[in-house]
Amino acid sequence: MKPDRKYQPLLEFLRQSNQAEVILTFTEIEELMNDTLPDSARKKRAWWSNRSKGALQASAWMEAGYRIEEVDFEEQRVTFRQPTAKPKVQRVGDTVLWNAQLIKALRRHMGLTQAEFAQRMGVRQKTVSNWEIALYEPPLSTSKHLELVAQLAGFRYEEGSENSE
After folding, report:
1. 11, 62, 111, 153: which has the fewest C-beta neighbours closer than 10 Å?
2. Is the sign of the CA dihedral 115, 121, 122, 125 positive or negative?
3. How much of the chain exceeds pLDDT 70, in percent?
Protein backbone atom coordinates (compact mmCIF):
# COMPACT_ATOMS: atom_id res chain seq x y z
CA MET A 1 0.00 0.00 0.00
CA LYS A 2 1.30 3.42 -0.91
CA PRO A 3 1.01 6.20 1.65
CA ASP A 4 -1.61 8.78 0.79
CA ARG A 5 -0.70 12.41 0.28
CA LYS A 6 -1.30 13.25 3.93
CA TYR A 7 1.73 11.18 5.00
CA GLN A 8 3.83 11.81 1.88
CA PRO A 9 5.86 14.62 3.55
CA LEU A 10 6.81 12.24 6.39
CA LEU A 11 7.89 9.64 3.82
CA GLU A 12 10.02 12.20 1.97
CA PHE A 13 11.56 13.55 5.18
CA LEU A 14 12.57 10.07 6.34
CA ARG A 15 13.88 9.14 2.87
CA GLN A 16 16.13 12.21 2.88
CA SER A 17 17.43 11.52 6.37
CA ASN A 18 20.90 10.01 6.47
CA GLN A 19 20.41 8.70 9.99
CA ALA A 20 19.74 5.17 11.16
CA GLU A 21 17.54 6.64 13.91
CA VAL A 22 15.23 9.64 13.69
CA ILE A 23 13.34 11.00 16.70
CA LEU A 24 10.44 13.35 15.99
CA THR A 25 7.88 14.92 18.27
CA PHE A 26 4.21 14.69 17.39
CA THR A 27 4.32 18.44 16.70
CA GLU A 28 7.27 18.07 14.31
CA ILE A 29 5.40 15.34 12.43
CA GLU A 30 2.33 17.57 12.19
CA GLU A 31 4.47 20.45 10.91
CA LEU A 32 5.95 18.16 8.24
CA MET A 33 2.48 17.03 7.19
CA ASN A 34 0.94 20.49 7.52
CA ASP A 35 -1.94 18.65 9.20
CA THR A 36 -2.84 17.28 12.61
CA LEU A 37 -2.37 13.71 13.74
CA PRO A 38 -5.57 11.87 14.66
CA ASP A 39 -6.42 11.54 18.37
CA SER A 40 -5.60 7.83 18.20
CA ALA A 41 -1.96 8.71 17.32
CA ARG A 42 -1.69 10.57 20.62
CA LYS A 43 -3.29 7.85 22.72
CA LYS A 44 -2.96 4.41 21.13
CA ARG A 45 0.21 2.47 20.53
CA ALA A 46 -1.56 0.45 17.84
CA TRP A 47 -1.70 3.53 15.58
CA TRP A 48 2.11 3.44 15.48
CA SER A 49 2.41 -0.27 14.75
CA ASN A 50 4.60 -1.39 11.85
CA ARG A 51 1.82 -3.17 10.02
CA SER A 52 2.08 -3.62 6.31
CA LYS A 53 -1.66 -3.71 5.59
CA GLY A 54 -4.38 -1.16 6.18
CA ALA A 55 -2.31 1.65 7.70
CA LEU A 56 -1.41 4.53 5.42
CA GLN A 57 0.78 6.13 8.07
CA ALA A 58 2.82 2.94 8.55
CA SER A 59 3.25 2.68 4.79
CA ALA A 60 4.99 6.07 4.88
CA TRP A 61 7.74 5.18 7.33
CA MET A 62 8.09 1.59 6.16
CA GLU A 63 8.40 2.62 2.50
CA ALA A 64 11.12 5.05 3.62
CA GLY A 65 12.97 2.11 5.19
CA TYR A 66 12.12 2.81 8.82
CA ARG A 67 10.21 1.07 11.57
CA ILE A 68 8.77 2.50 14.76
CA GLU A 69 11.11 1.60 17.57
CA GLU A 70 9.48 3.49 20.43
CA VAL A 71 6.52 5.77 21.09
CA ASP A 72 6.69 7.99 24.16
CA PHE A 73 3.19 9.36 24.81
CA GLU A 74 4.29 11.41 27.82
CA GLU A 75 7.01 13.24 25.85
CA GLN A 76 4.94 13.02 22.64
CA ARG A 77 7.75 11.70 20.49
CA VAL A 78 8.41 8.80 18.19
CA THR A 79 11.64 6.96 17.42
CA PHE A 80 11.98 5.73 13.84
CA ARG A 81 14.83 3.29 13.19
CA GLN A 82 16.16 1.62 10.10
CA PRO A 83 16.35 -2.14 10.59
CA THR A 84 19.84 -3.45 11.05
CA ALA A 85 21.39 -5.99 8.76
CA LYS A 86 19.85 -9.42 8.55
CA PRO A 87 20.36 -11.28 11.82
CA LYS A 88 22.68 -14.27 11.73
CA VAL A 89 21.44 -17.67 12.77
CA GLN A 90 23.03 -20.79 14.07
CA ARG A 91 21.64 -24.25 13.48
CA VAL A 92 21.61 -27.67 15.04
CA GLY A 93 21.24 -29.90 12.02
CA ASP A 94 18.50 -28.27 9.97
CA THR A 95 16.88 -26.45 12.92
CA VAL A 96 17.53 -22.75 13.53
CA LEU A 97 18.52 -21.92 17.10
CA TRP A 98 16.27 -18.96 17.90
CA ASN A 99 17.85 -16.46 20.28
CA ALA A 100 16.61 -13.19 21.82
CA GLN A 101 17.84 -10.98 18.97
CA LEU A 102 16.39 -13.19 16.26
CA ILE A 103 12.98 -13.55 17.93
CA LYS A 104 12.71 -9.80 18.53
CA ALA A 105 13.75 -9.11 14.92
CA LEU A 106 11.09 -11.53 13.62
CA ARG A 107 8.37 -9.99 15.81
CA ARG A 108 9.30 -6.47 14.71
CA HIS A 109 9.48 -7.56 11.08
CA MET A 110 5.91 -8.78 11.45
CA GLY A 111 4.89 -5.48 13.05
CA LEU A 112 3.45 -7.20 16.12
CA THR A 113 3.43 -6.45 19.81
CA GLN A 114 4.69 -9.15 22.15
CA ALA A 115 1.07 -10.03 22.99
CA GLU A 116 0.10 -10.33 19.31
CA PHE A 117 3.20 -12.39 18.53
CA ALA A 118 2.49 -14.64 21.53
CA GLN A 119 -1.03 -15.24 20.24
CA ARG A 120 0.35 -16.23 16.81
CA MET A 121 2.82 -18.58 18.46
CA GLY A 122 0.30 -20.09 20.89
CA VAL A 123 2.27 -19.01 23.97
CA ARG A 124 1.84 -16.40 26.69
CA GLN A 125 3.11 -12.83 26.26
CA LYS A 126 5.44 -13.38 29.22
CA THR A 127 7.04 -16.28 27.32
CA VAL A 128 7.83 -13.99 24.38
CA SER A 129 9.18 -11.38 26.79
CA ASN A 130 11.41 -13.99 28.43
CA TRP A 131 12.70 -15.10 25.03
CA GLU A 132 13.47 -11.50 24.03
CA ILE A 133 15.42 -10.75 27.20
CA ALA A 134 17.26 -14.07 26.84
CA LEU A 135 15.94 -15.45 30.11
CA TYR A 136 15.55 -18.67 28.18
CA GLU A 137 15.41 -19.85 24.57
CA PRO A 138 12.52 -21.67 22.94
CA PRO A 139 12.66 -25.47 22.78
CA LEU A 140 13.56 -27.12 19.46
CA SER A 141 9.89 -27.94 18.76
CA THR A 142 9.02 -24.24 19.05
CA SER A 143 12.04 -23.38 16.91
CA LYS A 144 10.50 -25.36 14.07
CA HIS A 145 7.29 -23.36 14.48
CA LEU A 146 9.26 -20.09 14.55
CA GLU A 147 10.96 -21.10 11.29
CA LEU A 148 7.58 -21.67 9.64
CA VAL A 149 6.22 -18.35 10.93
CA ALA A 150 9.38 -16.58 9.70
CA GLN A 151 9.09 -18.19 6.28
CA LEU A 152 5.43 -17.21 5.92
CA ALA A 153 6.25 -13.64 7.01
CA GLY A 154 9.08 -13.31 4.47
CA PHE A 155 11.64 -12.85 7.25
CA ARG A 156 15.20 -13.21 6.00
CA TYR A 157 18.32 -13.99 7.98
CA GLU A 158 21.90 -14.88 7.23
CA GLU A 159 23.44 -18.21 7.97
CA GLY A 160 26.01 -17.97 10.76
CA SER A 161 28.46 -20.64 11.79
CA GLU A 162 27.20 -24.20 11.83
CA ASN A 163 26.67 -25.57 15.32
CA SER A 164 27.21 -29.31 15.43
CA GLU A 165 26.16 -30.30 18.93
Report:
1. 153
2. negative
3. 90
